[in-house]
Specification:
Blueprint: H1 2-16, H2 21-38, H3 45-52, H4 56-63, H5 66-76, H6 90-103, H7 105-121, H8 123-151, H9 164-179, H10 185-200
Length: 209
Amino acid sequence: MSSHNSVQEQTHTSRRSKITPERAQEFYTAVLDILRESGYESLTMEGVASRTRCGKSTLYRQWGSKTELVVAALHSTRRMPLSHIDTGSLAGDLREAARAIGAGSGRDTRLMHALSHAALQSPELLCALREALILPEIAAIDAMVRQAMERGEIPMDNPAAEFVSAQLLGVMRARPLLEAKIADEAYLTRFVESAILPALGLGPADTGS
């Protein structure tokens, strides 16, 4: 029985290996584009197959279901662009973070909205969504704040420090609902300068490089 299962697993792995990383990325891009355009309910394996000019059976053989394919696509987007920001000051870092987040806010916000309802019903999908779009940015912003404390820019017990990532990322998700507008670079930069920096005790003079 164990030997039979092993043979099945090897055969399954062999089938999956026929898709190159480059081809898989084409599928992931198509999935994410369709999600942004039409939402999760409108996404079908047939639609992805048609857009990528492949057989539907190829997708099912590789991923098994729509949910598994979406989860894989989300994992493929994981990135930490904010982790490379280091201007030498917290104010400078947060301004750069606002610009970086704002630059992709249109695409990311549409994706979040497209998946939010389905993610609440699927722990696996919710976990992938958080890992792909939310947790990396929280970790990077928290690191900026922690480094600022270590440099002595803000006190270790600054009460506003723990809320910086929630403010910056939260307002990006909230503005489309509150004002029907995307939280773009200009808006997020103003938010940092008008709300976050004053709460941290930092002012216009704390510009960084």
